[in-house]
Amino acid sequence: MRPCPHSSLLPASSVTFERSHQHHPRPRRDQHLCQRHRHRHPERLLSPNPVPVVLPLVAPSHLGLPPLSPIASIVVATHSSKFSFPSTFQGPTSISREYLANRYRSLSPSTSIASSSAPSSVVSTPPSSPEPKSEHNLPNLEEGPTPRTTPSHLILEPTLFHSGHFATVYSGTFSLDNQPSSRIILKCYPTQYFPRHLQELDVYAALAPLAVIVPRLYTVLAPLDLTWAGLVLENAGTELGNSSQTWDEVDLTHDDRRRLYGALTELHSVGVVHGDLTPRNVVRRSRGALCLVDFGQSTLHHVCSGARCPELFALREALAL
């Protein structure tokens, strides 16, 4: 196993290593490494010393998002051990969206990324040198007027939750100090798909006025070497179906169908087209409400034509409304 290049960033005393004496089955390879995405689950980076260091990536104010909570500690639970360590994030300091865009440009100069037109409250110097290797050449961060928030804690589970065409998803829990934890998913985009990550981030900014029908975005994370960037999202419930099922094959009452159509109408009211509305991208919350998820193929600036809108028309036909 290759050691993590950032292990020197943390003092030895900051890492606790607890080994279980119980036998655990060897996890499948696809639970750790997705060859298509070249993205490793954090467990594959773990040993008693090397620990993946993760920083909150985006300041919320220029995206219109709620205050994002600083990560005080991260726990990665594995099949055979558990690591707990403090985050290097110490306050309302973030890397801006422009830093991520510039980072992608530095890796793929021929690819153009449209930067956000909204002013950023946090400005960082784009990288001009190779990937950071130590605390002396980390990205240049500046503190902005981000609202003070309560430190939070992230726990990742060792198993792969879902692997799609562009992103890999893991599950876990997220909690604020002295508050119950919430189930989350961590949706990770590898470097080559940063434009899609930025697009989905902009979609969540547009969805900020909505509630219940879309999952909550808690924060955005990336490792120091920016080999991937991930959205920490609310795990809103249970999927209605899998990728092979149609709307006729899932359990939906007539009221459910009307509520689902209404949810898509609300989505369009803020200028967002979902782009991939299938049973696996709709989940049922614990109290029965329906929630639209997975905005990786969504588009912005939609001007809805009402009943004649192609996406609304297609859903209405599929639901027999």
Automatic annotation (TrEMBL):
GO MF terms, alphabetically ordered: ATP binding; protein kinase activity
Biased composition (Low complexity): 110-126
Region: Disordered, residue numbers: 1-47, 110-153
InterPro entries: Kinase-like_dom_sf (IPR011009), Prot_kinase_dom (IPR000719)
Residue ranges occupied by any Protein kinase domain in the UniProt entry: 155-321
Identification of the protein by name: Protein kinase domain-containing protein
